[in-house]
Design goal:
Helices cover about 30% and strands about 20% of the residues. The chain is built from seven helices and ten strands. The longest helix is centred in the middle third of the chain and has 17 residues, at about 95-110.
């Protein structure tokens, strides 16, 4: 049964901008004590767009914490990987170090500002942040729900890692989505993204985790906030 957030319709300036561990966090708090907390990593300060899109889909009360200021190719990548396009920056594999900061400093700093303990903690992300959200399951049991939209599961050796490592704590549910044109590319590494995403979905489903895989029309860059919102809404209702 859905519950309606009493903040429905309030203007965007109700968001709180805080800083913790050197990261700007845009906090969209629910007025409902105990509402789930969704932690979202953002690359272009898209937190408000995602927050509004989620609220247009579901009446379930939730708090969104949108974290920015990320060193994207470092803090969202699990291990070093060379550029996949000429002229791109390499990924340096700083996810473990950042995850320590997230779980030990950033999330506790967010929780201090909430009126009560959230019913659950969800981790959400798009692209490399979607990869990071799933990687986090193998390093911490803090997050019980995961939403990965257009996750970078082309990442070298990640599928093998997921297939051969145990999670710190299996999540209650996990959401995966992808654009139907994302694998249709000349780049051989990126061509694996749909096959790998489907394999992860199947792996988690066979492990007894409630999962959903959704294929959206378009390429990697189309309707990113709306796609992310669909995943968050699903894990909130799951």
């Amino acid at each position: 049964m859905k519950t309606t957030d009493t903040m429905e319709g309030l203007p965007s300036n109700t968001a709180q901008l805080i800083e913790t561990a050197g990261k700007p966090v845009r906090l969209f708090p629910s007025a409902r004590e105990g509402a789930p907390l969704v932690v979202l990593h953002t690359v272009q300060d898209e937190g408000e767009s995602v927050w509004r899109a989620v609220r247009s889909i579901t009446g379930t009360a939730f708090t969104l914490a949108a974290i920015g200021g990320l060193r994207w190719n470092d803090e969202m990548s699990p291990w070093p990987s060379p550029p996949i396009f000429k002229g791109d920056a390499p990924c340096t594999g700083g996810a473990d170090a950042y995850l320590g900061t997230l779980t030990e400093t950033i999330v506790p700093g967010i929780l201090e500002r909430l009126p009560g303990k959230p019913a659950c903690l969800a981790l959400a992300g798009y692209s490399l942040a979607g990869l990071f959200a799933v990687y986090a399951l193998y390093r911490t049991g803090m997050f019980s729900r995961i939403a990965s939209a257009s996750g970078s599961f082309w990442y070298p050796d990640f599928l093998a890692f997921a297939q051969t490592h145990a999670m710190a704590k299996p999540p209650e549910c996990a959401y995966f989505s992808l654009g139907d044109k994302e694998a249709k590319t000349r780049n051989r590494i990126l061509q694996t993204v749909e096959e790998n995403t489907r394999a992860l979905h199947q792996l988690y489903s066979q492990a007894g985790i409630t999962t959903r895989f959704e294929l959206n029309p378009g390429n990697h860059f189309q309707n990113a906030p709306e796609r992310m919102a669909k995943g968050i809404a699903w894990v909130l209702e799951g």
